[in-house]
Amino acid sequence: MAALEKMFNVKGKSVIVTGGASGLGLAYAEIMAEHGARVCLFDIDTDGMNRVVADMAQKGWDVWGQTVDVGDRPAMAAAFDAVAAKHGRIDTVFANAGIDPGPGFNTPTGERNPDGAIENIPDEQWDRGIEINLTSVYVTVKNAVRHMKPAGGGEIIVTSSIAALINESIVGTSYMPAKAAVNHFVRHMAMELGAYGIRVNAILPGPFITNIAGGRLRNKADRAAFESQSLIGRIGDVEDIKGLALLLASPAGAYFTGSLIVIDGGSLTRMT
Ligand SMILES: NC(=O)c1ccc[n+]([C@@H]2O[C@H](COP(=O)([O-])OP(=O)(O)OC[C@H]3O[C@@H](n4cnc5c(N)ncnc54)[C@H](O)[C@@H]3O)[C@@H](O)[C@H]2O)c1
Questions:
Q1: Nearest residue CA, atom 16 of ligand 1?
Q2: C-alpha pair distances (Å), 230 with each of 159, 212, 226, 268, 269
Q3: Which InterPro entries match (predicted)?
Q4: Count of domains in the chain?
Q5: C-beta of 50 in contact with ligand 1 (< 6 A)
Q6: Closest CA to 97 of 64, 122, 131, 47
Q7: Which of 3, 19, 71, 160 has the fewest CB atoms found within 10 Å of its own CB?
Q8: Which CATH number characterizes residue 166's domain?
Q9: What pTM value is reported for the model?
Q10: Cβ(75) to ligand 1 under 6 A?
């Protein structure tokens, strides 16, 4: 095997991607499967998941899916066990599923949005935001470690956000504290799990065109608001995330753990 191929080798790895049917999760699944990993998607969108699994299978890639709500703890435990039973082990887990929990307190054009004002946020909306964007990461890591520790190691890659480091007024309020807590949790897990050969890192994307928040980054006003933050004049395409995902999941990333890696076209640099 050529040196470069060896460095980024993920062939045969057993991989789970939560929220793998769309956006960044799908990009993680594609780059891993394209390079010979065996990938299982967990997603609540069964139809969308079946479509992307069929597309990838057509390319000869080893991909399957399980319908799982990452907020459902017994279902998550069973889904992890099913992957371990099918693949014999679990090597790499992308804790990626996430949602925009609701409108922010500003519109993309800078007006106040009463639906996002703190006094109007429905408690269920706050709770669901924390459950999916924060608690599900804990549940995912817990189940991953249950399988990785006895096997002697693995990699966990969590999708956080630059919203962990700055405040976005057009994003639902619970998103920022959830992602900030995710960052801290990732570093805490890296401390606990390094001794067991388990590396834990976070990817902090800036704006990427995906289906989050109803795919609103495809709308002109939302897109312009985010584009104006980039130092290279554009927002992210899901293809842009693939190199970083492969790096963190492969031998090339062996010395990364507890890292919070920003990938945002320079947005954070402009804003801070
Ligand atoms: N797109 C961006 O600009 C951006 C920026 C920073 C961080 N992120 C983060 O990236 C991650 C992926 O988001 P995306 O932008 O690719 O969005 P997306 O909506 O395109 O994909 C998210 C996927 O997660 C699935 N999902 C949602 N809730 C779920 C649940 N309860 N259980 C299982 N699956 C569920 C959806 O069905 C979908 O397939 C999220 O954690 C998000 O917070 C996105």
A1: 23
A2: 20, 19, 7, 8, 9
A3: NAD(P)-bd_dom_sf (IPR036291), SDR_fam (IPR002347), Sec_Metab_Biosynth_SDR (IPR052178)
A4: 1
A5: no
A6: 131
A7: 3
A8: 3.40.50.720
A9: 0.98
A10: no
The amino acid at residue 253 is G
Residue type (1 letter), 52: V
Residue 175 known to be catalytic: yes
Compute the Cα dihedral for 31, 20, 137, 230 and give only its sign: positive
Where does the pLDDT of residue 225 fall: very low under 50, low under 70, confident under 90, or very high at 90 and above?
A: confident
CA distances for 104 relative to 101, 107, 112, 113, 236, angstroms: 9, 7, 9, 7, 21
Cβ(161) – ligand 1 distance below 6 Å:
yes
Residue having the nearest C-alpha atom to atom 14 of ligand 1: 23
**How confident is the model over 164-209, as pLDDT tens digits?**
999 999 999 999 999 999 999 999 999 999 999 999 999 999 999 9
Structure token digits, residue 146? 């249950």
- Atom of ligand 1 lying closest to residue 159 CA: 41
Compute the distance from residue 204 Cα to the ligand 1 centre, in Å: 13
Q: What is the mean pLDDT of the chain?
A: 97
Instruction: Give the ligand 1 atom nearest the CA of 212.
Output: 19
Contact 14 CB / ligand 1 (< 6 Å): no
Distance CA 40, CA 184 (A): 27
**The predicted structure's pLDDT at residue 216:** 86
- Name every residue whose Cβ is closer than 8 Å to that of residue 196 and which is 6 or more positions away in sequence: 145, 148, 149, 152, 153
d(CA 13, CA 23): 22
